[in-house]
Amino acid sequence: MAHQKYASCVEACNACADACDHCSTACLQEPDIKMMARCIALDIDCAAICRLAAGCMARDSEFAKQVCQLCATVCEACGDECAKHQNPHCQECAQACRRCAEECRRMSAGG
Amino acid sequence: MAHQKYASCVEACNACADACDHCSTACLQEPDIKMMARCIALDIDCAAICRLAAGCMARDSEFAKQVCQLCATVCEACGDECAKHQNPHCQECAQACRRCAEECRRMSAGG
Amino acid sequence: MAHQKYASCVEACNACADACDHCSTACLQEPDIKMMARCIALDIDCAAICRLAAGCMARDSEFAKQVCQLCATVCEACGDECAKHQNPHCQECAQACRRCAEECRRMSAGG
Amino acid sequence: MAHQKYASCVEACNACADACDHCSTACLQEPDIKMMARCIALDIDCAAICRLAAGCMARDSEFAKQVCQLCATVCEACGDECAKHQNPHCQECAQACRRCAEECRRMSAGG
Q: So which domain of life are we looking at (chains A, B, C, D) (predicted)?
C-alpha cells in the first residue's frame, strides 16, 4: 500500500493513542487520582493528536509532516509526565509515547 | 495491559481506519473518480467510527460494545462498496473492513 | 447550505462536545476528583461521539441517523451522571447533554 | 464557563469543521469531481484539525495554542483552494476557513 511509506510511524501513533486512552481510564481508578490529574489531561490530548496524525499519514495529507511534528511535542510531554508515575499503565504509556515521539520526529524531518 | 481483552478488535479497528483513510486518498487519484464517490464517502465515515471504536475499547468505555456494534454495520457497508472496485486499494480496504466487521460483531456480542 | 436540514442537531452536538470537554478538565481540578471519575470517563466518550455525529450530519452520511441514535444514548448517560454533581460545570454539561440527547433522538427518529 | 475565554475561536472551529465536512460531500456530487480532488482532501484534513482544536480549547489544553497555530495554517490552505471554485459550498467553506484561520492566529498569538 502507498501509505506503507509511513507504516512504522502510523503504527507507533496507533499504539500510542491506545496506550494513552488506556492510561487515562486506569489513572481514574488509582487511589490517589489527584496526583494523576495532569497525566489524564495529557493522555486525552496525546490520544487525540496521535489519531489525527495516523489519519493524516494514511491519507498522505499535505500536512502530515506538520501534524507529526506537533504530535512529537505532545508525545514527549505526555511521556515525561507518565514516566514520573510507577503504575504499570503509566510506565507502558511512557514507552509508547517516547517511541511515537521518535517516529514522528524522524517522519517530520524527512520521511 | 487491561485493554488487552479487546486487543485483536482494537488492532482491526486501527488497521481498518488506516486502510479507509488510504483508500479515500487513492480513490481521489483514480481516472474515474465519479465512480468512486460513494466509496470515498463511506471511507470517511468508516475511518472516523473505527478510530472512535478503538478509543472506546482502549478506555474500556461503558459504551464500547454499542460503538463496536455500529462500527460493524459501517464496516460492512464500506467493505461491500469497496469490494465492487478492482483497484488494489479498494480490494485491500474491503478485506480490512470485513475483518473489522467480524471482530466488532464478536466483541459486541460478548467480549 | 444542504446540511442546514440538521442545523439545530449539529449545533447541539458541537455545544455538547465543548461542554463535555470543558467539564472533564474542570472535574480534574475539583478537590474530590475520585467522586468525579465516572463523570470524567463519560465526558470523554460523549465529547468524542458528539464530534463524530456533528461530522456525519454535516457530511449527510448514510449513517447519520444511526450515529445520532447512539449519540443520544451516550448523552443521556452523561447528562444523568453530571446532574448528580453540584459544580456549575457539571450542571451546565448536564443541560447541554440533555438538549443534545433530545435533538439526536428527534433527528434519528425522522429527520 | 472557563472555556469562554476561547469562545469565539471554538465557535469558528466548529463552524469551519461543519462547512468543510459539508463541502467534501457536496464536492463528491459535482459533475467534474476531478477538479475538486484537492478541495476534498483539504476539507477532510481541515475538518479533522478544527475538531481537534475545538476540543483542545474546550479542555484548556497545554497545547491549545500550538494546535490552533497549525489549525490556522491548514484553514488557510483549505480556504485558498475552496476560493478557486464557484460552487456555493466552496465559497461558503472558504469564508468559514478564513474566519477560522484568523481566530486561530489571534488565539495562538496571545489568548
A: Bacteria
Instruction: State residue B104's pLDDT score.
Output: 98
- Show the domain range for C67: 2-110
Q: Hey, are the CB atoms on B21 and A92 less than 8 Å from each other?
A: no
Most B CBs within 10 Å, among A6, A22, A56, to test the B interface = A22
Please work out, in degrees rounded to the nearest 5, the angle formed at the alpha carbon of residue D61 by the alpha carbons of D56 and D63.
90
Residue-wise pLDDT tens digits, D15-53: 999 999 999 999 999 999 999 999 999 999 999 999 999
Search chain A and give the residue with CA nearest D58. A45
Query: How far apart, in Å, are the Cα atoms of C13 and each of B2, B92, C52, C58?
Result: 31, 34, 9, 11
Which member of B45, B52, B73 has the closest CB to residue C49? B52
Asked if D78 and D97 count as a contact pair (C-beta separation under 8 A), the reply is yes
**Run of H or E including A107:** helix A88-110
Q: Taking CB atoms and an 8 Å cutoff, what residues of chain A touch B47?
A: 55, 58
Inspect the interface and report whether the beta carbons of B37 and D28 lie closer than 8 Å.
yes
DSSP class per residue in C72-88: HHHHHHHHHHHHT--SH
Find, among A28, D110, D3, A60, the residue nearest to B59 by Cα.
A28
Instruction: List alpha helices for D28-87, DSSP H.
Output: 37-58, 64-83
- pLDDT band (50, 70, 90) for residue A1: very low
Is D61 within 8 Å of A49 when comparing Cβ atoms? Answer: no
Render pLDDT for D69-87 as a digit per residue (tens, 0 to 9): 999 999 999 999 999 999 9
Question: How many domains does chain A fold into?
Answer: 1
Query: pLDDT for B60-73, tens place per residue?
Result: 999 999 999 999 99
C110 CA to chain A: closest CA distance, Å?
32
Residues 6+ apart with CB under 8 A from B29: D37
Q: Which residues of C touch D60 (CB under 8 A)?
A: 22, 25
Residues C103/C8, Cβ–Cβ less than 8 Å: yes
Query: In A, which residues are within 8 Å of C52 by CB distance?
Result: none
A–C CB contacts, 8 A cutoff, strictly below: 19
Question: If chain C, 111 residues long, is cut into consecutive pieces of 10 residues, what is the mean pLDDT of each piece?
Answer: 77 98 97 95 98 98 98 98 96 98 96 49
Instruction: Indicate the helix (H) or strand (E) that contains C21.
Output: helix C7-27
CA B68/CA D34 separation, integer angstroms: 34
CATH of the domain at B8: 1.20.1270.360
